[in-house]
Write a structure and sequence with these properties.
This protein folds into two domains: 143 residues, Rossmann fold (3-Layer(aba) Sandwich), CATH 3.40.50.1000; 64 residues. Helices cover 44% and strands 10% of the residues. The chain has ten helices and six strands; from the N terminus they run βαααααβαβαβαβαβα. The chain is globular.
Length: 230
Amino acid sequence: MFAKPVRAVLFDMDGLLIDTEAVYIDALQAAAVAMGLEMPIAFCHSMIGIPGPVCDGMIRDFYGPGFAFEAFSDHFDEHARRAFEAGVPLKAGAVELLDFLAACGLPLGIATSSSQATVARYLGRAGLLDRFKAIATRDDVGRGKPHPDVYLEAARRLGVPPANCIAFEDSNAGLTAAHAAGTMAIMVPDIVQPTDEVRAKCLHVAADLHAVLRLLRGVMLVADVSAADP
């Protein structure tokens, strides 16, 4: 199934390991309602996988001149904070998949559009932070997803060529980034299904992380960190 020996695995975070995207969408729409506005769900979906500062610009442009973005942002932050007070929800199958990959001896990395602070907070609260040998965030690169930079940086920090990395993504923007970096990219859709263009870039599209685990067990994935590229 894999064109190259698998030497590392890279993960997106939001919507892939941590079930945050639905919370963010609820917070966006709640903030809009609090200000007497509407935010179409399609517009919310267009921001999935995109770095926060870029999303901020999209929101400003959407509502136009005179929009009180700071007030909107305060409403969003408060709604999201309350939603996460009970804990950071993991996606089903995340722990089992990470356990399997660790047993295979594969180093794991994060390549995310979130900030360093958000990664530390969410993965730390979820008890997953020490699972990853390398973490690359939007703070570490000049261009966010759908550009490949964050995946290239994560692979560099692991010391593994991107072509020898499996990358797991839940969004179209993220899968585009992973593919452009040259990884073996697998999509696990969260809220938005892959477009035809993105589907063509996927090595595989899995229903959920449980399906990913079954897939990898089926090909008997084992790390081969010493093998030369064919």
